[in-house]
Amino acid sequence: MSLPRRPKTVLAPLAGFTDAPFRKLCSELGAELVYTEMASAAGLAHGSVPTRFLLSVLPGESPAVAQIFGSNEDDVAAAAREIDAMKRFCAIDLNSGCPMPRIRQEGSGSALLEDPEKIGRLLKAIKAETSLPVTLKTRPGPRPARNVMLEIVAAAQEAGVSGITLHARYASRGHSGPADLDLLARCVQAAKVPVTGNGGVVDRASFDAMAQTGVAAVMVGRAALDRPEIFRELSAEPGEEPPPPLSARERFDRHVALMKVFAEQLAHEFPDARVPSADTCIVMRFRTHLFRYFAGMDGAARMRRDMNSFATADDVFAAVSALRPSRVSGNRE
Ligand SMILES: Cc1cc2nc3c(=O)[nH]c(=O)nc-3n(C[C@H](O)[C@H](O)[C@H](O)COP(=O)(O)O)c2cc1C
């Protein structure tokens, strides 16, 4: 009897984090599929260059899905045309789960959960403009009293999607609380297309629990921000010794190296635009990544406090060099 196949490991779209350097880092560490940060369909439709930065890809990333958010068929269609022409993505994904007020106010993200038919219309508009597979990332509904999961699955399938990701928390819960694996299993049973599960996977045990629902893939969000090497651990075969964790310093050094390459690539790709320098990328991006990588080390709390005053990459490197391993947390430098 053959064993059920291990679900694929997927890096979630995380606005502010999953840029090309971070996606490549996770790819090197075993993520089998990666998502861009959500990009505004209206921004793409109206030629916004900073929005296009989000859709730049580094050579060597695992297959990458371009995620868009939008609430208007013309915009998502125009965005789909743009992305199709880039010839660098393996699929286009529509976000119908983001609970941020800024996104909801424009009728996008989780606001779409109020109207499953509209989700279907937006997906059809995207499908009409691309030969790439089109997918949907969604939630079971806006709140527990309004579960629209099966309506969404039906509308998405009718529009011709190739897959559905279910973040198994209602939008009203934001990103907190446990994911509802029973709902996820119902979604897998109801859907004719592969379902990717998402929510609360932080280690092998939570990955295995989600795999039991029958999902084709498991998407990991915040746990990858702390430990991108989680993908290596999740893809180890049963009984296989997982590779040792990376030290915080190893993670940091590789991430910095990839950021430098990416800054050069952006300058090359957008010669007429004001492209952030490697220094700016390192200062800006590590304001969000640094404290996660070095959490628990002696001096990490002070570094977190000082982070907003970092002006150059050298400030970042000096702060990191001042950190010391903590005997309490065991986080290695
Ligand atoms: C900082 C942050 C940014 C996020 N950005 C996006 C996004 O751009 N697109 C999206 O579909 N979901 C986004 N999400 C939701 C995640 O993709 C994921 O669904 C959520 O974090 C649950 O997975 P987790 O429990 O493994 O973190 C974001 C979540 C966080 C915490």
Task: Note the main attributes of this structure.
single chain, 333 residues, TIM Barrel, 2 domains, 8-stranded parallel β-barrel, globular, binds flavin mononucleotide
Protein topology:
Elements: E1 8-11, H1 20-28, E2 33-35, E3 39-40, H2 41-45, H3 49-53, E4 64-69, H4 73-86, E5 91-96, H5 101-105, H6 116-127, E6 134-138, H7 149-159, E7 163-167, H8 181-190, E8 195-198, H9 204-211, E9 217-220, H10 222-226, H11 230-235, H12 248-269, H13 278-294, H14 300-306, H15 313-321
Parallel strand pairs: 1-2, 1-9, 2-4, 3-4, 4-5, 5-6, 6-7, 7-8, 8-9
Helix pairs in contact: 1-12, 4-6, 6-7, 12-13, 13-14, 13-15
The chain binds flavin mononucleotide.
The site of flavin mononucleotide has 22 residues, from α10.
